[in-house]
Every structure is written in C-alpha cells, then in structure tokens.
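[User]
Um, tokens okay?
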Amino acid sequence: MTQRQHPKMALICPRVEARRTPGGEEEVTLHLSAPEMPDLTLKTPPPSAPTEQIRVWRTFGEAVDMGREVALWLEEYLGEEGFRLFYMSPHHKPRELLADGEWRDLCSEGEVSGFSDLSPVLMISEASLKRLNSHLDTHLPMQRFRPNIVISNCQPHQEDEWKELRIGDTLLRNIKPCHRCKVTTVNHEKGEFAGQEPLETLRKYRLYEMVHQKVDKRFGINPLFGTNFGVLKTGNLAVGDTVSIV
C-alpha cells in the first residue's frame, strides 16, 4: 500500500514520542491523525511480541502487526478493507538489500532497510530542487519528493556524485540514483494527484541515459531526482551537521 494507489495517505500525519521509563527502557508512542478522523495513539509492542514475515517488492523481513484498532482506522479513512499497520524495530530482522534480484549488483553485504522501496536514506539537495523549480510554472516544495536528508550549499544534483559520506557519526554509501514515480505528482496539501508535473519536466533533462550517457533499462522512463544511500555505520544525525565526503 502506497500513495501510488492511495494518494490520501499523504494527509495522514504521524507523530512519534519517545521517553525513558523509570526502569530505563525506551517507550515509544505513535500518534496518527487525518482529516475527519479521530486521533489514534498506539504504543509500540515489546521485543517479545510475535512477528510476521513482511515483503516489500522483492525482499522480506520481520515485523509486528499493530492490531485491529489501527487497521479499522485505516480502512475507514481510505475507504477500503484489508489494511494492516506493521512495526519493525531494531530487534527485528530487516530486509537485506542483497536479496533484491533487480538491484543486487549495486548493493553491498550488510546493507539493510525497513519499509522503504530499497534504501533507508533518500538524499536531495536544495540546489536540485531550485533547478527543477526554475523550469516549472508552479514551484514545488521539497515535501513532494519525501527525502529524509536534505543538503544545502552544493551544486544541483551534486548528491549524485558522492560515493561515501560522513554526517555526524554516521557513514553513508551511494547505492543508486532515485528514479521517480507518480507519487511525486501527489499534492500533499490535498491528498490527490495533481497532473503530470514534475515528471513531465524532469523527463526533459533527468532520464538515466541523459545523465549517465548510457542505457540501463531498469530505470525506464522514470526520471532521476535524489540519491538512494545505504548505511555503512549507524549513528546520530542533527539539523545543521556538516557533510563530509569520504
């Protein structure tokens, strides 16, 4: 289930709270809100909770089903039946990227992910968005592209070229350019598709063969915007951290 099929998902607002219990354990609470829906609060399950096998595209991992209450909440909001919410913690078996038959040649031993399409990190520079917006009649916010790391003070699409990066005490490795789908056409303020932009414009200058001067059929007509990074060393990140090329 993604915004490709259900653009209204863009209006679901998650908020995570974490605290230490008197016993020193971390307690995490998830708050969900959406238009015309009651707020819902969920506590993450303990490490001993039973897991199920989950699949995202071609790879498998383990996660905990968060139960019927949130499933009914999702069904009511999205207007269909059959939805479940799963939780994957650091204690659970993640998806191994090397198990992805389509992208295995670009992945390395030990690189893992949770529920993202492939890699756990999507990086985009502010300069890349500024260049795109210079071609558009209506400027788009960074939110359209859903990166979890945004970089400033670099050239447009320079993130494509960085092989390994250190941010804080975290080490990241460039896996591949991110080829974009119709989720980028979802208006995140309305929760609905809003035409063909930015894909139509990006296809004029950001197709794989245009950028890399060679053909890779896996990317098709999906233009590139942002870069997928794997995590070589976990650590803490903070807004304002310096990005160092290794």
